[in-house]
Design a protein that fits this description.
This protein has a seven-stranded mixed β-sheet, with helices on both faces. The chain is α/β, with parallel strands linked by helices. It has one domain (6-193): 3-Layer(aba) Sandwich (Rossmann fold), CATH 3.40.50. It is globular, with a radius of gyration of 18 Å. The protein has helices spanning 36-43, 86-102, 121-132, 152-163, 182-193; strands spanning 6-12, 25-30, 62-67, 71-75, 106-114, 137-142, 172-173.
Length: 208
């Protein structure tokens, strides 16, 4: 997908604030500091449209970004930040769960994990939750530039085994710094949202 326009739409704190334009949505889930904002910026070739919070774990909203009037990226609140109270984590969890379960426009969930480290307990819980509710999803392993290329497959194998993934679920290796994985991820997103929708060309008339 060639990105011609990209804009921030809203930081939603309740379902009534979700956009009503019926565009397909691709949600990004992951721990705080896993690189969700950086991935969005790389995918749309912008430097600072999606901004990283100065206080990790403090983002409590669903941040919507409209791309080409074709889809929304939806940046979900990061999970697993230790300094956030248990009560707050539970409240955010209900908020995210409500969105993931009920949002009809949701076509794909990208679960971001850090390639450098084995998936955390929170990562495992999110993966199992998405599996339980049969949500279309793909695991994206970020920060690949921080791992020697010779170690990529070793780290990817650890992620697959820890989460109990099938090959179709990833992980897709990604680097916001290098652009690694950008084209492959766009191809998968396009497939998930049915883009582009091309009508079959009419058959040429038979000349006898």
């Amino acid at each position: 997908m060639k990105v011609n326009t990209a804009e921030f739409v809203i930081s939603a704190v309740q379902p009534s604030q979700y956009p009503e334009d019926a565009l397909p949505e691709v949600a990004l889930a992951g721990r705080s500091n896993v690189g969700k904002s950086s991935l969005i910026n790389r995918m749309i070739s912008r430097k600072n449209l999606a901004r990283t919070s100065s206080q990790p774990g403090k983002t409590q909203t669903l941040n919507y970004y409209r791309i080409n009037n074709d889809l929304h990226f939806v940046d979900l609140p990061g999970y697993g930040y230790a300094k956030v109270s248990k009560t707050e984590r539970e409240r955010w969890g209900r908020f995210i769960e409500q969105y993931l379960v009920s949002r009809e426009e949701l076509k794909l969930v990208l679960q971001l994990v850090d390639l450098r480290h084995p998936p955390s307990k929170d990562d495992q819980a999110m993966f199992e939750w998405l599996q339980h509710f049969d949500k279309p999803m793909l695991v994206v392993a970020t920060k690949a530039d921080k791992v020697p290329k010779s170690q990529w497959q070793k780290h990817a194998k650890i992620i697959r085994e820890t989460l109990g993934m099938t090959p179709s679920q990833g992980p897709l290796l990604f680097s916001s710094e290098l652009g690694l994985g950008k084209d492959e991820l766009w191809n998968l997103i396009e497939q998930s949202i049915g883009y582009p929708t091309l009508e079959a060309a009419p058959e040429a008339p038979i000349v006898e």
